[in-house]
Amino acid sequence: MKVIAVDDSPAEVIDLFFQVLVDITTEPYHYELTPSALTVELAGKQIHSETISLPQTTEKTLLIATRNEGKTKEFKALFSPLGYTIKNLNDFPDLPDVAETGMTFEENARLKAETIAKLTGEMVLADDSGLMVDVLGGLPGVWSARFAGINATDAANNAKLLHELASTAVTPERRTAKFHTTLVVAEPDKPSLVVEGEWLGSIATIPKGENGFGYDPLFVDDETGKTAAQLTLEQKNKRSHRAIALQNLLKKLPEWQNS
Ligand SMILES: O=P(O)(O)OP(=O)(O)OP(=O)(O)OC[C@H]1O[C@@H](n2cnc3c(O)ncnc32)[C@H](O)[C@@H]1O
Ligand SMILES: [Mg+2]
């Protein structure tokens, strides 16, 4: 049998060629398609190869069980090199708010991730995080989002924190603090994956910087001496509690996904 070279032919001609080939030949042929190349061998001889670019067929989307756009912005930047599109609960208005009734970051992160995973049937990531100030015995901790009251604004929470530390007995050395994140990944009918991350620093006496969210204007990073709000998103994502927790998560995620 004579094989006609089809390299450089339009895609439809190549398709037709293979159809005819399959119809008329009884010779064994091997067809290999990868995202970047198409090669065909007939009777052990390569008869066609071309460089191709297949559209991504399986878009990776990850739902994060949060309504906090500050966290979401950080997760989007952290996950984008991995090819994930990030969605949050604000993209799904019909999903309920999950009450954070736990006494620990892990309990609250589990509540958020496991409730939303059950309702959607999908793999879901949740972040429960907060600021822990040593001289306040770890407060505001799990109450960070509601330190100044239910639905408190970031500005009100920051003002309350400065007020709590206003005593002259709270010298600069006694203003040490850390940010904490617990991440939980949940899927229906499977034990959840739990990881943590922390970021050491101290509390400034006045807010500084425009970036970030929450307590960022008051949290001074130990290493750079800048507040988290003075760091760019990229700088914060190299050292933050959330970034460290995510690194820990990525180390364990493949094994968890295969379990
Ligand atoms: O529960 P979701 O919907 O995720 O959003 P939330 O804002 O209520 O989030 P948390 O319950 O985890 O509370 C975390 C609070 O801790 C503070 N916080 C956490 N991470 C922070 C960060 O990176 N920078 C500044 N403040 C942070 C901030 O006040 C958050 O509102
Ligand atoms: Mg919350």
Automatic annotation (TrEMBL):
Q: EC top class, in one word?
A: hydrolase
Q: Which Gene3D superfamilies match?
A: 3.90.950.10
Which keywords does UniProt give here? Hydrolase, Magnesium, Metal-binding, Nucleotide metabolism, Nucleotide-binding
InterPro entries attached to this UniProt entry: dITP/XTP_pyrophosphatase, ITPase-like_fam, RdgB/HAM1
The record lists substrate as bound by: T66, R67, N68, E69, G70, K71, S129, F213, G214, Y215, D216, K236, H241, R242
Positions contributing to Mg(2+) binding: D128
Q: Catalytic site residues?
A: D128 (proton acceptor)
Q: Any keyword Metal-binding? A: yes
Cofactor(s) in the UniProt record: Mg(2+)
Its Gene Ontology cellular component terms are:
cytosol
Superkingdom of this entry's organism? Bacteria
Q: Which GO terms describe its biological process?
A: nucleotide metabolic process; purine nucleoside triphosphate catabolic process
> What molecular function does GO assign, one term?
nucleotide binding
Cofactor binding note: Binds 1 Mg(2+) ion per subunit.
Annotated catalysed reactions: XTP + H2O = XMP + diphosphate + H(+); ITP + H2O = IMP + diphosphate + H(+); dITP + H2O = dIMP + diphosphate + H(+)
Q: Name one Pfam family in it.
A: Ham1p_like
Entry EC number(s): 3.6.1.66
Query: Which HAMAP family does its entry note?
Result: Non_canon_purine_NTPase
On assembly, the entry states:
Homodimer.
Question: What does the UniProt function comment say about this protein?
Answer: Pyrophosphatase that catalyzes the hydrolysis of nucleoside triphosphates to their monophosphate derivatives, with a high preference for the non-canonical purine nucleotides XTP (xanthosine triphosphate), dITP (deoxyinosine triphosphate) and ITP. Seems to function as a house-cleaning enzyme that removes non-canonical purine nucleotides from the nucleotide pool, thus preventing their incorporation into DNA/RNA and avoiding chromosomal lesions.
Q: Which family does it belong to?
A: Belongs to the HAM1 NTPase family.
State what protein this is by name.
Answer: dITP/XTP pyrophosphatase
Naturally occurring in which organism (per UniProt)? Pseudolactococcus plantarum
